[in-house]
Design goal:
The protein contains 13 helices and 11 strands. With 314 residues, it is of the alpha+beta class. It has 2 domains: 51 residues, no CATH class; 174 residues, no CATH class. Strands 8-1-7-6-9 form a 5-stranded mixed beta sheet, covered by helices on one side. Helix 5 runs antiparallel to helix 9. 38% of the residues are buried.
Length: 314
Amino acid sequence: MTRVLSFHRAYRCRDSGDCCSAGWPIPVEPDRAGGLARLAGRRSMTLLPVVDGRCVFHDDARRRCHAQETLGHAALPLACRQFPRVSVIDPRGVSVTLSHFCPTARGLLDDGGATEIVVDAPSFPADGEYEGLDVRAALPPLLRPDMLMDWESWWLWEAESVALIAARAESAGTALAALAVAVDDVSDWSPGRGPLDQAVRSAFASARECRALRHVDDRVRQAWVDDVVASIPPPHRPSVLDRTTAALPPGVLGRFLAAHAFANWTAHQGTGLHAWLRSLEVASVLAEDFGVRQADLLLRHLADPAALAVRLGA
């Protein structure tokens, strides 16, 4: 099965062209190279050609991909076929969140409906093509550096987290404070305390009583931004980040946080739930300071996920 957040389930490409004009180096797999090279009038191709920061196949006036129209969607490189999907493939199936660098995905954050995990949405069929972080043969996420979770408890943790964030969608600060209570409560669990899933439920019961506000001072905020920038490979590392002066509309930051709590790569690459929580706090800071599109540009596309996970777990 595939799982996706309810406000993402209606996603369809609207041909904004931002992914085609980002200037990213897009590798071309060998089985796609021949057709694309012939279409571009070249002898070979390992990267999509970029002219003036735009893919050579993108028709800006028509907002269409010439390669896709001529050769079909299946002929495109994997990165083009997957964008803006961010997937985790685990023993239960596929969990898919979206990068809000895509303007169409960004628009879905304005959805005022319920925020929950849904299964096999029409836009995300079970037989679709999903490439991402494949942990089917890996161990479940770490609870803490010396203790694993089990898969059932991790699935429950995701569902409870999304539900808690949804209940506090108008205030990301109180959602993060409540999540911190849940993380602190469950992180010292040991098998002698009974089943982990019961401990997860108990932790979230306590978290729902929390009314505190998570506050991050300017020094820590800047340190987190520096960590993200340092995890970006030097050729793509920005020298300046443009801060936003526009406040996010009510609920948008909450749905953005849910999109980072779910299908979260740091949970599988970090050192436990505290690193998972830190990834949400960092996402919140970036979204507040730079907007959700630039936040996901940094977190989803430029930063090295493994390097960032190490920094978040430090």
